[in-house]
């Protein structure tokens, strides 16, 4: 028998991973932009010597590099490549976070079909949400999605109990029913 309690845990872990990776990506991108803006114009440090042996640290300073200096473009390109490095890694982590978030929003239709098969074809909404350890709203939307695919239907005689029946529970096409395109079902 399948352990149905892992469904909710998997969805929660995917959501936590989504928040972590998206946050990491945003922090990397923002820190790269802040570091790029913080540099200011390209400059070099000029040391001022009093004589041959002593360095006057009070008179030493940074001076801006003029645009016609050959090292100016190298410094600017280095800073821009550093910015792109942070932005690419940040956007990559944000994309991984979006992928985990999309995965956490996936409806557990296949698990509901397995649960219906093990329970004889009749399920209530509270039973689905507690067995799968998921939010009742997510369970209701998964049941409505199965209703659109003509796999499950609510039993109108007992509407208050929110009872759903799966008429073909003995031969549920679990693998095909969730992945079959809707136009094939409509043609059938």
The strand count comes to 5
Strands side by side in the biggest sheet: 3-5-4
Helix content: 55-70%
Query: Uncertain regions: pLDDT < 50 for 5+ in a row?
Result: 179-188
Number of helices: 7
Biggest sheet details: 3 strands, antiparallel
Provide the gyration radius in Å: 31 Å
| SS-derived structural category | mainly alpha
Domain module count: 2
- Average predicted local confidence, pLDDT: 80
Please state the overall shape, judged from the principal axes of the Cα atoms.
rod-shaped
SSE run: HEEHHEHHEEHH
End-to-end CA span:
32 Å
Strand proportion, as a percent range, falls in 5-15%
Please provide a written account of the structure.
The structure is a single chain. Helix content is 60%, strand content 9%. α1 runs antiparallel to α2 and α4 packs across α5. A hairpin with an 8-residue loop joins β4 and β5. It starts with 5 loop residues before the first helix and ends with a helix. The strands form 2 sheets. It has a 3-stranded antiparallel beta sheet. Strands 1-2 form a two-stranded antiparallel ribbon. The protein has 2 domains: 90 residues; 79 residues, Winged helix-like DNA-binding domain superfamily/Winged helix DNA-binding domain (Arc Repressor Mutant, subunit A, Orthogonal Bundle), CATH 1.10.10.10. With 188 residues, the protein is mainly alpha-helical. It is rod-shaped and about 100 Å long.
């Amino acid at each position: 028998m399948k352990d149905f309690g892992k469904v909710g845990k998997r969805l929660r872990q995917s959501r936590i991973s989504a928040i972590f990776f998206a946050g990491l990506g945003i922090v990397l991108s923002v820190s790269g932009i802040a570091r790029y803006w913080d540099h200011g114009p390209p400059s070099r440090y000029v040391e001022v010597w009093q004589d041959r042996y002593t360095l006057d640290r009070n008179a030493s300073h940074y001076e801006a590099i003029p645009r016609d200096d050959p090292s100016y473009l190298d410094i600017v390109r280095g800073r821009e490549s550093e910015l792109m490095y942070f932005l690419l890694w940040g956007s990559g982590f944000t994309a991984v976070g979006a992928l985990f978030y999309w995965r956490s929003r996936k409806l557990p239709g296949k698990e509901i079909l397995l649960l219906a098969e093990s329970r004889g074809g009749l399920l209530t909404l509270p039973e689905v949400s507690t067995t799968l350890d998921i939010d009742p709203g997510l369970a209701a939307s998964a049941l409505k999605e199965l209703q659109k695919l003509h796999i499950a239907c609510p039993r109108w005689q007992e509407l208050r109990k929110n009872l759903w029946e799966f008429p073909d529970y003995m031969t549920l096409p679990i693998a095909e029913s969730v992945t079959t395109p809707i136009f094939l079902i409509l043609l059938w």
